[in-house]
Amino acid sequence: MEGMAYGAGKAGGAFNPITFFQQPHTILRILSWFFSIVIFGSIANEGYVNRPDEAQEFCIFNRNQNACNYGLFMGTLAFLCCLAFLALDVYFPQISSAKDRKKAVLADVGVSAFWSFMWFVGFCFLTNQWQVAKQEDNPLREGGDAARAAITFAFFSIFTWAAQSFFGYQRYKLGADSALFSQDYIDPSLDAGAPGDPYTSFTAGGDDLGQGDPVGGSSYQGINGEGGGGYQEY
User: Which stretches are transmembrane (predicted)?
Assistant: First the structure.
């Protein structure tokens, strides 16, 4: 696309919040961010139950503490990761270097694919532990909705993160318009070799060496005082 570099226009343009929030990858990040809140909140608030004759609470997923820790840890990291990439999306159009944009897009592709895989693992893990949970461990069936919500939104997160990776790859394929974006951008104020004053030729004795007489009209004197303009035999 002409005038575009990895899905964004030339650096220096004004930020348009309406256009920003209408972008597919922005919508997907917000959804992933919301899903991570639901997963973390469901497990943190209602993910621990106990029997009527017990004081200590255990993880609702088959009393497997690792299952709850996985959901809490991954939910928290996904929440922070979404915020970080949303901030990067806001700053992305201001990046002048096409190489830096390329690195950001590749990071988006890789990280999103990683999160999609991790939520697939989390979905399988939580589902398995929920299926093998014993009814006697939770006779009042407390926290069932929270457990199902965590499993459901872990499943949804697989596709939102996978879609982010897909759209990131599409942005990578767009590449950069080399006519508008420098592959090795250097701030002119930091470039030691940037041109300053116009070039002037070296002068000696006040005469500009570049303004000498034409070769045909030179008055070169030889060692014996003989002129170089023409040869005379004595």
Answer: 26-44, 70-92, 104-126, 146-163
Give the pair of three-digit tokens for residue 136: 């006697």
Coil, strand, or helix at residue 12? Answer: coil
Query: Pick from 3, 1, 11: which is nearest to 104 by CA?
Result: 11
- What is d(CA 56, CA 65) in angstroms, rounded to the nearest whole number? 13
- Facing residues of 136 across strands? none
What are 88-120's pLDDT values in tens digits?
A: 988 887 877 778 888 888 999 999 999 999 999
DSSP state of 58: E
Which residue has tokens 């806001």? 90
Phi then psi for residue 208, to 5 deg, are: -80, 125
Main-chain phi, psi angles of 232, to 5 degrees = -125, 130
Both tokens of 229, joined, read 């303009």
Each domain of the chain, given as residue ranges in start order, spans 34-92+101-176
Contacts of residue 196, defined as CB under 8 A and 6 or more positions apart, other chains included, come to: none
Measure the CA–CA gap between 59 and 46, rounded to whole angstroms. Answer: 9
Structure tokens at 156: 């949804």
Q: Does pTM top 0.90 for this prediction?
A: no
Q: What is the CA radius of gyration of the chain?
A: 35
